[in-house]
């Protein structure tokens, strides 16, 4: 793992798993997504990981026209690194998932490193009424969808978005095998250091939120990549804060946000993304870590720079 003198925070602002019924604080409209992203950057997030939602009913949207309603404001009002998802949602085609990143050519984009069962249907049992008709079926449908990220799809993204447009990647690894997939593309020269490995724990279908698993993922990544990679890690749901603390103690970076957890503490809903950023910033500072700002992270990840995007 490549050690850094400072630790950076990624904030995943809205995602595609949680639905509007689950929390009144989940940003849904372009105005809400923009507001919460800007507030998260002001609270200390150097990277903003962004999805879009249909402004009418909050369902995940791949449409560049929706992204365009909040990206320029974030770009103008913050120095944060904009990270556009290419994961989108498990219900989208690969072409839909890539549309916004290909249009706006961000400094950073997420890239999932393998096809998995990505199940989040359990939340459907917690609610009797729904704000929108689509929500329950969408959650239950995750039991019968494969989140497809084939080798050919990964290569296409690396070439079209990476080689052609200069975007670098947050390589999302949901299991140990995804590290070996990443190593395959490193060996072929399609991924060049320094690269960011985002290890994700606690998604049903991926590696579980056990701390031994984080230690093991780091051991494997160290063996495969040496100091060519920058580690970041998080766990979904109630394990969020303990896992980012563990990642920081290992010398890695951290990610929080309402995409990953709707809570700020056990049994207590987070009221904003900024609240989670402020909490993890306090944890890092209590551990003696300094926070890295956006320009410092640009240097760490060898990004092309804010002026080179098409936002």
Automatic annotation (TrEMBL):
Matching InterPro entries: Aldolase_TIM, BKACE
- Co-factor(s): Zn(2+)
**What's a Pfam family this protein contains?**
BKACE
User: In the record, what terms sit under GO molecular function?
Assistant: 3-keto-5-aminohexanoate cleavage activity; metal ion binding
Which of UniProt's keywords are assigned here? Metal-binding, Transferase, Zinc
- The residue stretches assigned to a coiled coil in this entry are none
Q: What name goes with this protein?
A: 3-keto-5-aminohexanoate cleavage protein
Q: Which organism is it from?
A: Ornithinimicrobium ciconiae
